[in-house]
Amino acid sequence: MLRVSLTALGLLAALPAVAQDRGGLAMRNSPIAELGQIEANTNSGCPLSSTSVTVGVNQATAFGSSAQQRLGTFGGGGSFGGGGGGSSSCRPLVSTQVVAGANLALGNGSSAGQTITARGPSGVLATNTFTRGYNAGFGASSSATQRLTNLTGR
Asked: Fewer CB in a 10 Å sphere around the end CB: N or C, the chain?
């Protein structure tokens, strides 16, 4: 039940990011020139947005059990220019990163540890980050540790 809830939370958090691929420039000057510019950008293979969703569920439920989990997502996004004669790559305009985790130590003497790290592209126009976690230890001598990191850039 908890896994389904976290998956739903992750999807709900990522849905606004889908809307980022819609839109473009405001039509201020010549609509034909601006439409040409938008068309050139979309046909060059460069995405308008980048979305990263990392969700982890970790649990130790039996007496004396131990569960450890480490997840990582490292988003792309090249660099402009590329000094060295190679072809330049492009970066998205907007980056959205979602990190969500549930870490549970539910048995007596159990331990659960979870680390989730996400790193998105640098040099984007806007970055949206969403980081949420649930960490709990229930039972005598149980321990739960959780570390969630949501970074941008290199």
From this structure: N
